[in-house]
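Researcher: Please predict.
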Amino acid sequence: MSRELQSRDVQAAAKYVEMKGYELVGIDEPFLAWFEDDTMVVCRVKASTTKFPKGKERRSSYEKMMAKFTAMTYRIGFMVRFDRIDLHVVSEDRACLRHERDVQDFA
């Protein structure tokens, strides 16, 4: 997948998060983070033009990004959850989005 497409996918996921009313903490492609009440959500975004992406994530990748995003926030004493957003890109300006909460299937 091209870097430009990946960037657009992460931006689309960030727009989804903001539309849900959550406080966006930051973006570090292919990850983004936001606050959902008293929980910081660290989320990996994956996209495909043929179908929804599959595959297991590395927990260490999530933990590395958790540390980075934690340093970017003013909040203290919060829980952390790992999510995944998969995008099936169907045209230049359209995609189907699947948001999986509390990812547990790590490689």
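Model: The chain has one domain: 3-100.
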